Prior knowledge:
α1 (43-54) crosses α2. The protein is 20% helix and 33% strand. The chain has helices at 43-54, 72-80, and strands at 10-17, 21-27, 33-40, 58-65, 85-88. It contains two helices and five strands, in the order βββαβαβ. Strands 3-2-1-4-5 form a five-stranded mixed beta sheet, with helices on one face. The relative contact order is 0.19. A hairpin with a 3-residue loop joins β1 (10-17) and β2 (21-27).
Amino acid sequence: MSTMARPQVEVTGGVDTHQDTHTAAALDSAGRTLATAQFPATTAGYAALPAWLTGFGRLVLVGVEGTGVYGAGLARYLRRRGIDLVGRGRTHRPGPEPGLPSPCP
């Protein structure tokens, strides 16, 4: 009996950052929401978030809103672990945060 390998889902994470918590969404390659969850804005929460995302498949990218304010710690944490990242500061400021690629061309 042969077993065919199932293709691994490519997962993109999106994170809305706040002072005390970060809300994350896991999306498949078609942009469908797989799940959402909330994590504390602490080192333990930073570690739990990518672990949760990889539970859905291969993590390819994480978008973080608020990388200049509440999401700065999370962005640093993810970047130091080699996770591909795009980020935006507050929505009324033009351009990407320094050191992060812009999610818009």
